[in-house]
Amino acid sequence: xxxxxxxxxxxxxxxxxxxxxxxxxxxxxxxxxxxxxxxxxxxxxxxxxxxxxxxxxxxxxxxxxxxxxxxxxxxxxxxxxxxxxxxxxxxxxxxxxxxxxxxxxxxxxxxxxxxxxxxxxxxxxxxxxxxxxxxxxxxxxxxxxxxxxxxxxxxxxxxxxxxxxxxxxxxxxxxxxxxxxxxxxxxxxxxxxxxxxxxxxxxxxxxxxxxxxxxxxxxxxxxxxxxxxxxxxxxxxxxxxxxxxxxxxxxxxxxxxxxxxxxxxxxxxxxxxxxxxxxxxxxxxxxxxxxxxxxxxxxxxxxxxxxxxxxxxxxxxxxxxxxxxxxxxxxxxxxxxxxxxxxxxxxxxxxxxxxxxxxxxxxxxxxxxxxxxxxxxxxxxxxxxxxxxxxxxxxxxxxxxxxxxxxxxxxxxxxxxxxxxxxxxx
Length: 426
Known about the structure:
Blueprint: H1 2-24, H2 28-36, H3 38-41, H4 48-62, H5 65-143, H6 154-166, H7 194-204, H8 210-218, E1 231-233, E2 236-238, E3 251-253, E4 256-261, E5 276-281, E6 296-301, E7 316-318, E8 336-338, E9 356-358, E10 372-373, H9 378-385, H10 391-397, E11 398-403, E12 417-422
Parallel strand pairs: 1-3, 2-4, 4-5, 5-6, 6-7, 7-8, 8-9
Antiparallel strand pairs: 10-12, 11-12
Helix pairs in contact: 1-4, 2-4, 5-6, 5-7, 6-8, 9-10
């Protein structure tokens, strides 16, 4: 009896020890096997080893320090990533709102600027009344019987100069300028002065004597004038400064212009037919489609200007410069050129048919592609006979090709002509 009790006691003690060992098991494969085989190995539901296997897989596999550390780090990382994502999303939203506010502020500032310029335009209307008064005085002095030379008094000339200076340029709305370079998408112009333009036209058409008119122009500033679409015939201008002005589609027919400046002005489609120009500067001006047909040009400067499709047909050009100008499809049909430079100019599709070329410089010309000429040996003629500067380079780059029934580019060229074509190896 004592021996049986002793054996039972030893068996119970062994089971308890084994249960503690099972409960302390931490190797994942053994934990899983013990848990899956617990019912077969220990059929008794109250067997402590069975319960130990259950506790072990829960606490050692899912809630062990290592698992908790890895899981905690993972959860913390996910939470951190989520917070960062939300912060980024919030920052993006804030950036979008700030960008919208910037656009709204820019639009508001734009409208303020427009309003300010419109108010400035209204303020300058007061000067228009003064201009009317001065022009009335001009008329009175010119109508005086003793004024046979059409001169103006010195005080009146001084008032005209002061008035011109008072007409400062400003921005204003003009949607008709959308085809020119002197406006923006809203129709707001660059700084221009319509009042200076009105004063200029009034003066040149008032019958003032040449000497007085010269005195007015030499000390007056008509830069930034706005005088589009006007026609004037037989005027004589000297010492006129019309820099940065807008003379779009205007005309000076059969006139004489001397020592005057049109730099940086918009003069597209402006006409100078049969007009004499002497010491006149058009540097950086836009003269696209302008006409100098039958004009007489002496020391006229078109450096870096836009003269695309400009017409110099039958004109006479002396000591004139087109350096680095754009002269695409420009017409020189039957023009007489003496000491004219085209250094760096773009003469693509230009027309030189029947043009007289004397002492011309084609040095470093940008392009003569598809230029019209009147001789099959035109290149040899300008190199060997005329010995023009830059002609050797033209010979190296181009050849002359005969084209029959070529499309008419201007009103002044022959139906069958020759054209310059760039050599294949160039």
